[in-house]
Specification:
Mean pLDDT: 86
Distance between the termini: 87 Å
Structural class: mainly alpha
Shape: elongated
Order of helices and strands: HHHHHHHHHHH
Bound molecules: fe (ii) ion
Number of helices: 11
Largest sheet: none
Oligomer: single chain
């Protein structure tokens, strides 16, 4: 049997299994092998042209899906990286934070001794919220650094987290001076914020930057509201919050300088709702 005949038999066997088997048999019986090849070529080239023109409007989106963070192109973290993050979380949650800059309340007359028990409780509640907010900021930025594969953004997020550690140290010190404890739920807030930061980064570096800008913007508004809620004579807490506010504005501007834009309104509202829940709980426990 010739090679051409053998190939025809093989193709015939395959096509016999499909619904078009009958048509194929008529086609192969009546038309020569050369003509069959020409017709197949014509059909394939028509199909190729048609598929190309149909997919043209979606080419950009298809390209996006190839570089999508959940594909194998963005490597998943290894065990060493996960252990490193777990170690970092333990340090943030258990080790006394260290501040590179001086305590902003250093040159103020701390009125804490003159506070009534109710006022002390109120100020402690506000500072507990701020301390938990800084735990979340650490977790968020380390999560974002963990989730990105962009070395430039990784450095940006780690640097931001390190700057936030001053805030963590100051709020912890203020809580101590008020004889108050940090929130019992800090480990929970850390895990949630870390997950959120890592997810934002895995989704895309753009979303991650947008998220950073929006977080800092919401923190700035929140600190403004705390400046109003604090007792008038509490210059110590106010000095801490004022310096934190200056830093948070700077962080937001950094994100914008790196290309952050505004997140969709429903995401901004969801973030605000989550922050409200955290504040309500941290004020009490
Ligand atoms: Fe902060
Ligand atoms: Fe910040």
């Amino acid at each position: 049997m010739s090679g051409k005949r053998q190939s025809q038999t093989k193709h015939g066997d395959v096509i016999n299994r499909c619904v078009c088997a009958k048509l194929y048999r008529v086609f192969t019986a009546k038309i020569s092998a050369d003509t069959q090849i020409k017709v197949a070529d014509m059909l394939f080239s028509s199909f190729h042209t048609l598929a190309n023109s149909l997919l043209e409007p979606f080419k950009e989106k298809l390209q996006d899906s190839i570089t999508h963070p959940f594909t194998a192109l963005k490597p998943w973290p290894n065990v060493d990286q996960i252990l490193h993050e777990a170690d970092r979380a333990l340090k943030v949650l258990t080790v006394k934070p260290y501040s590179k800059r001086p305590y902003p309340g250093l040159n103020t007359n701390d009125p804490a001794k003159t506070f009534t028990p109710e006022t002390r409780k109120h100020v402690a509640g506000l500072m507990r919220i701020n301390h938990t907010g800084e735990i979340c900021a650490q977790a968020l930025y380390f999560g974002q650094a963990f989730g990105t594969t962009n070395p430039h953004n990784k450095t940006l997020f780690v640097h931001a987290a390190q700057e936030e550690s001053d805030h963590l140290a100051w709020t912890a010190e203020r809580l101590e001076s008020l004889h108050a404890k940090p929130s019992l739920l800090n480990p929970l807030w850390y895990v949630g914020s870390f997950g959120l930061g890592a997810l934002a980064s895995r989704l895309s570096d753009q979303i991650s930057l947008d998220f950073m800008a929006e977080t800092e913007h919401q923190v700035e508004n929140h600190l403004n509201s705390h400046l109003e809620k604090l007792p008038e004579q509490d210059d110590t807490s106010k000095a801490i919050i004022t310096q934190m506010k200056i830093d948070e504005i700077k962080h937001g501007q950094t994100a914008i300088l790196h290309g952050a834009s505004q997140l969709p309104v429903f995401i901004r509202h969801s973030m605000a709702t989550m922050a409200k829940l955290m504040k309500t709980i941290a004020y009490r426990i």
